[in-house]
UniProtKB/TrEMBL annotation:
Residue span, Solute-binding protein family domain: 81-417
Keyword Signal tagged: yes
Signal peptide (residue range): 1-31
Pfam hit, one: SBP_bac_5
Name recorded for this polypeptide: ABC transporter substrate-binding protein
Record key words, sorted: Signal
PROSITE patterns membership: PROKAR_LIPOPROTEIN (PS51257)
Amino acid sequence: MRLPARSLRIAVLSSVSVLLTGCFASSGTGADTGADGKRIRVAMMNPPRSGLSPLSDDAFKLSRWSTAETLVNLDADGDARPSLATSWRQSGRTWSFTLRDSVTFHDGSALTSQAVVNALTEAATASPKPRILDGVDLDVKASGKHTVTVTTATEDPLLPQRLSSPQLSILSAAAYRGKTVDPVGTGTGAFELTKVNGTSSAALDRFDGYWGTKAKAPGIDVTFVPDGTARAAALRSGEADIVEAVPVSQAALLDQELITEVPMPRTNTLYLNTTKSPFEDAGLRAAAREAIDAEAIVEGVYEGRADVARGLLGPALPWAADLRTEPARAKAGDPDGATVTIGTFTDRAELPEVAQTLQQQLQKAGFKVELEVREYANIESDALAGEFDAFILSRATVLDSGDPVAYLYSDFGSQGSFNISQLADPAVDKALAEAGAKEAGPERRTAVMRAEAAVLATDAAIPMLHERVVQGDAAGVVGVEHDPRERLLVTSATYVK
């Protein structure tokens, strides 16, 4: 007898949960229960790629476990707030940071200006550099026991935001040995990383010498579970307390009170080639825009677990909607059977299905549509070279600085390095330059939205939806973070009842 799809999914979840039993047993030094409470069991999607080096994307794991910290944090609006640095001021190309006093690394050494100089210099001279420092030259010097100056080649109004990147975490001198960076026992956060078992698991214990609020939980036990069905099963069976990135296909099968949908700063966009027929014609770009039913894509492909896009910047940026203005656009022309080839990639499971839906919608409007779907590594160069009439991309809209200007410039500036639309529009370039020159804060955000409007006026990009990530939290979990930027997860306030 053939099981219905939903029944089959439940059967798979049940069988996987049996296999997972024991995977989340405590591996740290703290007790599982008792006066100190329970250790927090976390199932994460991606295993470490670079031995948990903070100079790689593994840095975001260290940040989400509250073990490695930066000089600066970001608030919900993307503005800089104190962390290991309590204050800062700018003088031309130089910024001066005052460090928090009485901070101790997990290895017992003190946070000093020299320790910060060492950590930031290691990052600035790494090969490859952390991506937040692409095109940025830093000269870091100690100007006092608790004062550090950072000088850039050109004035950089976003330097504090850059220093909030987890890839610029401050570790003790013991972490930097030869060509490797070892975060075990060298952070400043509420939890000390005590053990890493390759790509399978990691353990952290509460650090009682933490400068901030003492952690409520005695420790964290992390297991890396790349398979989405297995992660969902771990939540369903009670094997994990916190589960990262539950697949949309599994979310409906779980107790809905245990999952939270977090809006991501990521937009699924159809890029139209403005230098190649037929989309060099603004009228036909407008016709494509009017043909697209984004709500049908959200409901059909994402099962309602995404947000229909009103612009390039979505609800993960809480200020964007209120500052958005409707751009003046071209009038739609008649496709009259124009043939277009849409490219996309298989690495994100939803995109091929999005492409098929778009194919049907555009054909209904009068276009003839061909699809070309490959792995991302085999299609990126052709997309950047303008080989396709259109390209579907799921794109992060704020990078490590928490600011969208870098994304807008990269994708839509005439000199942008990721300009799939091949757009070269003076009004867009002017708006981007004005946004990039503003200091962080309300004026910059207003300028950013003017730049978004300038891009949307060209119809070079048609934003369709903003993605969400589904996070699973067991019923007894308290104080867990749901962070759109994926920098926070377990903090001092997190514990299991």
